[in-house]
Write a structure and sequence with these properties.
- This protein is mostly helical.
- It has a single domain (2-234, 241-245), classed as Glutathione S-transferase Yfyf (Class Pi), Chain A, domain 2 (Up-down Bundle).
- The protein contains twelve helices and three strands.
- The chain has helices spanning 17-28, 65-73, 87-103, 105-114, 116-130, 135-151, 156-174, 187-201, 208-214, 217-230, 235-271, 277-299; strands spanning 2-5, 34-37, 51-53.
- The protein has a three-stranded mixed beta sheet, covered by helices on one side.
- Strand 1, helix 1 and strand 2 form a beta-alpha-beta unit.
- Helix 3 (87-103) packs parallel to helix 8 (187-201).
- The protein starts with a strand and ends in a 13-residue tail after the last helix.
Amino acid sequence: MELHIWPSDFGLPTIDVSSLQFLACSKMCASPVRVVQSARPWRSPNGELPMVAQIDGNAKPVTDFEKFVDILKKCGQDVVIDADLTTIERAQLDAFSCYLHHNLYPAVLHTFWADDLNYNTVTQYWYASHLHFPYNLYYLEKRKKKALRMLGGKNDTEILKDAFMALNTLSTKLGDNKFFCGNKPTSLDALVFGYLAPLLRVPLPNDRLQVQLSACPNLVRFVETVSSIYLPLSEDELKRQQSNRKMWQSRISKAKADKEAAKTTEEAAEAIPDEPPMRDAILFTIGALVLSVAFAIHTGLIQVSVEEEIAE
């Protein structure tokens, strides 16, 4: 079985939310899946990564997380994901997964795909540099439109409010535990890790959601725990990512500087006093009177007679 995911960066084995969820889940149950870092989403049935290709047999590639979890449960490895959960715990896991999809995932989409500053500075540049031209233009446009459709026209304030509440709910549920269902990871842990890790690790000029996440130390600890135990990077990956760090720092710094400059310009424009309203009203009144008189004379409503004086 092969798991095709987007390449690694920013201290993560992959920066894509779904790819992280698939990878984390496979590692948590020690599945002998072969991981393939790929930048060829067109090979997937839905044109997206991750994709699970089953080498033996003619089974179709899998791109759905729940179906992948079912496959892992039947693979026969010693550690079976979610095996120790009771019926009630499984129902709670499903409910929580649905809650996160509707309240946290939209904010993740907005952060990386709908926020123009983040998109232009990080998302667009990263994907464009990993995909060949002109396919990168097509893919980015398609992915961005898909994200906007999923957001459904929600405003930024509403999206962030739901996400902040979801993060607080996650923090409360985790508490002092190592994982969300005790001391053993479940598919919920893989799901949550996929949402949180990019928010925590990828540098962004608009970082409101990152700041909120960083204010939940147990969630930060959770991400670091999963990363160190199940998803450590190789020396080659660390060196490659280190070589790109200065470039990303430069891009983020420039984006933040441009953002502050634009804010300063906007504030300066707002500080310029408007023309006195009384003067405008007087000028408007005079102009209206002149036009009214001219119109009346032109249409004959007002007649002007000129009498010539007869010389004696």
